Amino acid sequence: MRALLVRDLKLAFRAGGGFGLGLAFFLIVTVLVPFSVGPQSDLLSTIAPGVLWLGALLACLLSLDRLLALDWEDGTLDLLATAPLPLEAAVSVKALAHWLTTGLPLVLAAPVLGVLLSLPGPGYLWLVVSLALGTPALSVVGTFGAALTVGLKRGGLLLSLLVLPLYVPTLIFGAEVARRGAAGMELATPLLMLAGITLGTAALLPFASAAVLRVNLR
Amino acid sequence: MMLRVQDLAIARGGLPVLDNLSFALEPGQALILRGPNGIGKTTLLRTLAGLQPPLHGLIEGADERVAYAAHSDGLKPTLTVTENLQFWARIFGAGTIDAALEAYDLHGLAERPAGSLSAGQKRRLGLARLLVTGRPIWILDEPTVSLDTSAVAMFAGAVRDHLKRGGSALIATHIDLGLDAEVLDLAPFRATLPALDDFDGAFT
To answer: B61-86: per-residue pLDDT in tens?
Structure first.
């Protein structure tokens, strides 16, 4: 498993690996929002938690179509399926590698971009906490979507259509934690729901991903 | 006994391609599969590798003992030759890559990224992967595509060494590898398609 994780991280950092793509997209989206909304800092600070969450979600989506498609194209998936490593473990590791190269940088960059949207003071901590708790679910659900569409030529658009509705619960509770945090309100309930969704998807979806992958490899 | 197949039927895209196929593979034995295009050689090999279920029939001894090499080699262009091999050696948990580099004369290319290799060199690297799997049954689908004569000799040598160590190999190929191997012609096992209903008859 470590070998697969190390390889995926190495591939992400090498030329054409796509590391930083999601981060740059996140940066651009959040910079564009004040341009389109206008320089009203009251309005901006109200919508900041939601905009940052939406930006992070779309940035996660951006690199999903290469998550399994590249391994399918060059035959690696066939070979991995015949390797001693269970396919469930392989998709879990791939989801983890996706989070480390896409989700984690977004979590770390979010407070800096919060400044651009004049996020209120107490909001920074809870923005980072909610993203750190929520983005792993985005990677795991995205891996499931990638497994569903592997083998389809240019399946990227279909992948987005399949995955975005599944992102809704995470978005609702994640943005709610960030919003309540910024307003200084009680936030235990959405925080627990967010953590529950992440743990539930991480525990169950790898089995579903491996099952659909086996069908798609036939 | 290494691998036994009994009364196997396989399908591709929902249509049966091979039926009533039985054979056995002993340690130290190689079996060459022959048959016209579309007979189902690749489908048979993928079924034996566990990538798809058979329609019916029995496959014994294939679980976790098969090293499969298909048309594509599973190489990452941005990783070096060493890194590519090392990855598969770690995944299969089987020893060092030196013997594999040696067998296919890849030492000179060890630090080159796989993306910069020629088609034949990539193929050699893909075949070298078999040596780091430590698996006893090699299942090879057209292994000699884009290999030159000296590389084909390297490959035949690697297969011979593998057989000497008690391994076995199942190879779909159209060229003569100079191996002391039995040939299994798949043509007699072609599945007869189920008779179609008289569709037009309903309209007359």
So the answer is: 878 888 888 888 888 888 889 888 88
Torsion of CA B155, B181, B20, B52, to 10 degrees: -20
**Which candidate in B55, B64, B68 is best for mutational testing of the A interface (most A CBs within 10 A)?**
B68
Beta strands in A86-181 (DSSP E): none
B199/B204 Cα distance (integer angstroms) = 10
Residue A78: list chain B partners with CB under 8 A.
46, 49, 51, 68, 70, 72, 74
* Domains present along chain B, CATH in parentheses: 3-191 (3.40.50.300)
Q: Which residues of B touch A16 (CB under 8 A)?
A: 78
Q: Quote the mean pLDDT of chain B.
A: 85
Q: What is the pLDDT of residue A104?
A: 92
B91 touches chain A (CB under 8 A): yes
Contact B83 A16 (CB under 8 A): no
> Tell me, what's the ipTM?
0.84
Gyration radius from chain A CA atoms? 18
Q: Answer with the residue of higher pLDDT: A56 or A9.
A: A56
| DSSP single-letter state for residue B188 | G
- Measured in whole angstroms, the distance separating CA A125 from the mean position of its chain's CA atoms is 19
Q: Is residue A206 within 8 Å of A142, Cβ to Cβ? A: no
